[in-house]
Specification:
Strand order of the largest sheet: 1-2-3-5-4
Radius of gyration: 19 Å
Distance between the termini: 40 Å
Largest sheet: 5 strands, antiparallel
Strand content: 5-15%
Amino acid sequence: MNKQAFNGFIPQTFQFLKDLKENNYKEWFDTHKKVYETELLNPLKALFLALTPAMYAIDPDFEMRPHRAISRIYRDVRFSKDKSPYKTFMWMTFQRPVSREEWKDYPGYFLELNENSYTLGLGLFQPKKKVMDNFRDGVIYDAEEFQRVTQETVLDRGYTIKGEEYKRPIPNELSEYFQPWIQRKGIWIEKVKPVGEELYSGDIADKIAEDFTALEWLYNFMKEVSETD
């Protein structure tokens, strides 16, 4: 792979995703494959490589090979009602290289691009019940520190808390602040921003790295609860 410098995306990056949404069939994609590679895939790879020093500092065990950490544009339509052959968004992840089953229990960072917006996030997406039990225990163990750190590094930075909630809330004695954190079967945080001028500059890599680094405490918290027996 040509390790090009990341100089930002261009408007054509997002125009390609918009056009693909309206022309999601093989013949169109084949004639625009070069556009896909030069305007979307290669800049994504360059951004991934630009982020790797900061992410290595967070966890040197992250998967750092772009071809394993960046999504494919091709959809697996075998078990899907929607037979559109291509995804209309792409993402990258920073997560430890574990098996297809184990990944659900380990935290990971992600960046997603679509035609109108981009999303930054971190979370435990499909963890076993035991992992979320450990998560709640960890919050309760030092609730004051959890609130102080997550308020500053998560909520104050514009992230929101996501994940499927329990139909019947789990009884607890924590204040209202903690309920969005602990009443979920899986949990992640995300920040969605509209496509804007900041994406057209290489400086966006530094801003993303700063955001992800600010989430390091929460990443380590999630990693610890994932590894607790």
